[in-house]
Amino acid sequence: MSLDMELERLRDIPMFRDLDTAKCKLVAMSSDRLDYAAGDIVFAQGGPSDSVYFMLDGRIKVSRQRNNIEIELAELSGGAVLGETGVICGRARSASIIALEPSTMLRTDAHVFKELLHQVPQVAVALARELANRVDATSDRLFDVTHGKAET
Amino acid sequence: MLNAVPRPIGRDALDPNLFRYIWTHSRRDQIVVLILIVASLPFYWLSLEIPKRIVNEAVQGEAFVNGVTEATLFTLSLPLPEAWGGTIAIFQGFTFDQVGYLFALSFLFLFYVLANGAFKYGINILKGILAERMMRRLRFELFNTLMRFRPEDIRNVKSAEVASMIKDEVEPIGGFIGDAYIQPAFLSTQALTAVAFILTQSFWLGMVAVAVVLVQAFVIPYLRREQLRLGRLRQIASRKLAGRIGEMVDGSRTIQAYGLKDYSEAEIGGRLGNLFTIRSALYRRKFAVKYLNTILAQTTPFFFYSIGGYLALRGSLDIGQLVAVIAAYRDLPPPIKELIDWDQRRADVTIKYEQIISQFSGRELLPEEQGGSASEPIPPDAPIQLSDLTVTDQRGTALLSGASLVINRPAHAIVLGSSGSGRDILARVIGRQTTRYEGSVKYGVRDLRSLTPRELATEIAYVPPEPELFSGSIRENVVMALKQSPPTNADANELRWREAERTGNPTSDGLADWKDYEAAHVRDEDELEKAVLNMLAITGMADDLYNFGLNGTLPRDADEALQSRVVASRQEIRGALVEAGFDKLIEPFDFARFNPQASLGENLVFGVVAGDRLAGAGRTGDAYFRSIIAAEALTDPLAEIGRRIAENGVEVFSDLPSGHPLFERFSMIRAADLEYYAELMDEYRSTEVGARLPDPAIDKLIELALEYVEPRHRLGLVTPELTARILRARNSFKEYLPFDYAGEVEFYDANQVMRAAPIRDNLLFGRVAQNIANAETRVGEFLRNILPELDMEGLVYSLGLDYEVGPRGQALFAPQRASISLARALIREPHTLILEDAFKDYGVDDQQAILQRISERVDGATMIVTAPIIPTACDFDTCIHVDGARVTVEANPSSRQLAPTDRESEAIDGDAISAATPQTSMEAGK
What we know:
The complex is a heterodimer of chains A (152) and B (926). With 152 residues, chain A is α+β, with helices and mostly antiparallel strands.
C-alpha cells in the first residue's frame, strides 16, 4: 500500500474527510504503517496510551475485561481511530484491540499526535466534535438506563 | 507602597552619560594615549621644520655662504648660564659638504615622517584595543543588568530586541568609544600644531590659515546639519510613498471599481512632487557643501602663493618658510574634516547610547552576591510567613488581597484555585518570581526580597508552568542547577583573566567544572550521572532517555574495551534473538542483500559515513561517489526519487515552523533547504517535458533520494531493478574505494564496532522491520531485558543524556521538556520546591504518578504545588484555597477529602461519566 492509497483510506475516517491533501499527508508521513495478522493484539487494556492508531483496512474487536470476564464491546472494520481518548486524557488503555483478520493501521506516537492537533486545527476541531457527540450519546444512554428503562 | 528592593550592590548602574561612562572605565588607557599624542607633537613639528632647512640651508646654500664648505649636524650641547661656565658641548656633531648636508637633512626628514607614522600606528592600536575593551565591558554590563531585572520585568522584555541591542546596536558605539577622547585630542593638537607652525613662520599667512579653519569649523557643520535634516525628511517621504503605493496596489480593485484612478494618480504625483522638492533642496545643499570645501581647498593655496610670494619678494619671508607653510597647510584640512565627522558621530552615537541605556535603566534591580560576609543561612525548618500580602495587576485589580498565612516547614502544601487566579500568583510570590507586592514574605527572619540569587537558589527551586530549556544536552540542562558558585580559577594570572578583570567581566572560566556536587549530595561525576538519571526517572523521562540513547553514537573517546564489549554484546543479542524467535523482526546487515529498512545511501555504501567527504550534501558532489552512481546508471532514477520526495516535502512541511519537532523528525528536507527545493519544484514544473535540470539541482535531488527508506516514507519508489543496481553499485563502491577514502566509511562488519552508527544498529547489527506490527515494541522490550545482563544499560542511558534538546528545547515534546525542568529542580535538593502548574503537559495518569514520586523524593523538605487536579496520589499537610483574591488555609486536609475547585469538579464529573460510558464509543472511535 503506497502513501497515496493510505491517504485514500484515511479519508474514510470522518475527522480526515474534509482535510486538505497536504495535511492528510502530514498525518500519514508522521506515522508508521503496521500490518497485523488475524489474532494479533494491537494494544491491551491497562497498557500505556503511547500512540493513536488509524485503521486503514481490516477488522478488529474491541473488548474489555472486568472480574476476569471479557466483554466484547464492538467489532469495527474500515476507517476508524483507536486509542485517541487515552492519549488525550493521559490515561492507560481502557480496552483491548485484537485484529480479527489481516488489518493495516497507521500508528502515530502520542507526542506526535498531540503536536498534530496543534498544527492541524481542523483535526482538533473534528476530534472535539466527535468526542462531544460521544458524550452526548453516552449521556442519553445513561439517562435511559437510570430513568427511561425504570419508567418503562 | 512598594517595599524598596535593595539597591544594586557591588556594581554601578549604567551611566546615562556616554562620555562620563567612557572616562570612568578607561581613564588610565585614555591618559596613556593622550601622553603618546603629546609626545608625538615635537616630531610632527620637526617634520614641518626640516623641509624649510632643506630648501634654505641645503638647496639655497645659506649654510654654505662666505666660503664655508662644510656644515655641522646633530651637535648636542647643554646650555648653562655664563656663571656656570656657559654652554657645554656634549657632542660635536657630524660635518657634511653641501650635497651630503642635503641628503642628511632629507634622511632626517624621512626619519621624522616614519616616526610620525609610528606614533599614529601606536595610537591607533591602543585606541582600537581600548574600544574593544569598552565594548566588551558595555555588552557585559548590559547583560549583567538584564540578569538582575526583577522576574516580572524580565518576563516583559522582548528577548530578540534586547539580544539585538547587545549584539548589533552596541557595535557602532564601541567603534566610537575609541575615538571619543583620543580623536579630538589627536586631530586638534595636530591642527593647532600646524597653525602654530604657520604663525611662527608668518603672522599673515597664519591668519589666513586660521580663517580657513574657522570657516570649516563653523560654516560647514551648519550646512551639513541642514543636509542631514533634509536626508531624514527624504527618508520619511520615501517610506510614506512606498507605503501608499503598496496600499493602492492592494486596494487596486476598489480603485478601479470606483473610478479612482485619476484621483490616486494625482495623490501619488503630489507625493512625488514633494519628494522632488526635498531631494532638490538636498542636492543643492549637498553640492553647496562640496563646492565650499573645494573652494576652500583650492583657493587657500592662492593666498599662500600670492601673499607668501609677495612677502618672500619683500624679504620678510624666505623660500624655505614658504615651502614649509604650504606643507603645513596641506596637513590642515584632514584633521578639520575628521573633527567635523567626529562631531556628527558623537551626536548619533550619544543618542543611540541613551536609547539603549533607557531600555536597561529606571528599574529596580535584584541584589548581587556580596563577597566575603555571607548572611546567616536560613534554617530549612524556618516557616514561610506571609503578612498582609496584596498583589495587584497593572490596572489595579487585586489578584491577592491582604493574605496572611504561615507555612510551617517542612510541609507539603497544595494551593487550590482556578487556573489564572491568585493561585499561581501566590506560588510566584513565594518563589520570588514576582517582587511587586505589598506586605511582607519572610523565610524565617529573612525578607524574601533581600535574598541574593545564590541564597535564593539554595532555599527555593521554582518550576514554572512553561519549561525553560537551553541549547545543549539533556544532562547539561539538568545539572545546570548545580552551577551557582564559580570554581577556583587556578590560572587567575593568565592574560585572558587579567583582560576580563580590566573590562569588568567575570574572571571565572565558563568551561571549567562548575558543578556543586555537594548540593546534589554526590561525590563525583559518576554518582552525579546516577542522580541525574534517577531524577529523570522520577519525572517520567526514563523511556525517552532509553530511546534517545539507543539512537546515540558511541562516545569519541570510547576505548578498545568498550568497543569489544559492544561487539560481544552484539553476538549475545543475535543468539538470544534467534532463541526468542525475534530474529525475523530484524533485517540484518548482509552484504549480499538489499536492506529495505536502511536508506538507499546506506545500502549503497553498505556502511555508515564517518568522514566529511561523503557526509550529507558533500556526498553527491564527490567525484568518486558520482562516478559509482553514474556507472550503474543510477543518476536519473535517484534524481526522480529525489524529485518525488522534494515535491511531497515542500507540500507537507512548508507550513511548519523550522525547528518544530514534526519537521525535525519527519522532514527529509532540512529547514534551510526548503525554500531551495520549493523553487526547484517550480522550475521543474515550468520546464519542458524531457528537459534536464542543471547538475547542481540533480545533485540536490540525489542527496534527498539517498535518505529514502521505503517502509518509512512509503512512496512506492523502490523497484527490484533499482535494488539490483544499488547492490552492484555497492560492490563497485567497496572494490574501487580509493586508499585516501579509508576513513570516510565504516563498512558494516559483524566483528567490528561502527563508531559513527547508532548504538542500536551496533547491538542489533541490523534494522527493526518497521512494517511488522509491534516489532519495534517487542524488540525494544527484548533489549530492555537483555541489556542489563550485558552491562550495557548504563551506556545507553548515558548516551540518552547526551541528546541535544535544540534551541529552547524545541527538539523535544512538551512533556519531555517538563520532565527535564522538574529534574533540574530536584537535583539541587532544595529546602523548598515550588511547582506552579508544572504538570499541565502530562496526561492524568502521568501527573498523578510523577507527583507521587516527587512527593516521596522530597519527603522531609517543603513542597508547594499548584495544579488543576486533585492529587489523590499523595497527601498534603496544608491546603491553601485561593478564591479570587481571597486566601484561606486548611491544615491537615488529608484527613478528609479535599474540596475540589470548580474546574476540578468538572474533571471529576467527566471521569464519572467516562467510567459509566460503554468503551466502544470512548476508546474505539465509534
